[in-house]
Specification:
Blueprint (H helix, E strand, L loop, with lengths): L16 H9 L6 H4 L14 H13 L2 H11 L7 H4 L2
Amino acid sequence: MASAPHGTLYIGMTNNLVRRVWEHKKHVMEGFTDKYDVTTLVWFEVHITAEAAITREKALKRYKRAWKVELIKADNPDWNDLYEIIVK
């Protein structure tokens, strides 16, 4: 998730992406994403198991910001909010 194109980035995992993005958008919980207004879903991956998702989340968090930006730009060059795609 991002606060804006090339803005603050947040990486997390969930078992319910639609619900979790909605919570970020509505600032349901205080914390990092609320503080920095990180409300735009710009990229996501789907994994078969929670273990696989957690492993990938940890790996992504180790990468440098520039690598993460390139990952987003490869699939979403305009940094569009993908939330509308997942709620359909």
